[in-house]
Amino acid sequence: MNNKLLDFCLRLGDTSLILSHRIGEYCSKAPLLEEDLAITNVGLDLLGQAESFLKYAAEIKGNTTADELTFKRKEKEFRCLHLVQTPNTDFAFILSRQFFMDCFHKLLFENLISSKDETISGISKKAIKEVNYHLKRSSEWMTRLGLGTEKSNEKLQVAVDELWMYTDELFIDNETDIFAKENHIGPLSSSLKKDWSELVTPVLENASIKVPENNLFSLKYGKNGFHTEYLGYILAEMQHLPLLYPDAIW
To answer: pTM, whole model, 2 decimals?
Structure first.
């Protein structure tokens, strides 16, 4: 049981961690100062969620810490979703990626609030307040870009089209999902797909963005330890100093 619970917590923590790191890379580059502050706060919220889940994962695993799980695991040991690994191509890509994940996180954390695991439930009760703000912000920006200029609509459509193939993984069940469902810890990922589509589709249509066709990116997924080429570069940067100076402390 502990191995599957650990895997579940690592997925939640790693996904928020890597998405937070991507947002951190964009700090000071947003089109408006107000947005730069807003998106940085989103990244900090995600980092807080990651820390909470990774601390719990460290307790489950034993003889480790959240910092060690973050900075001393190898790529294959991470369980983050492919979507959050995608690069910051431009603002439309950053926004679309965030919007897709905000919709997913809203549904996921709403379910996890009623988890029989009290720690996961507690983290989710705090996280859902943040996610509701994240989703409001990203939805408004999707509409703003989609209905802005011809160029902004075109860029947004390209981003949605190219990122859409990564969304399939959000709703693929593996053994950990089945374990979580059977033990009333979390929902099957597949059970969130219909509601996710009902959140995403109206926003896209209102923004004059066409909903893409479903195309699979991969049959091997981040939640199973198989990653895109992007994750290795992220970890090389994120883990460089802790691995170079393993005894250093703050």
So the answer is: 0.95
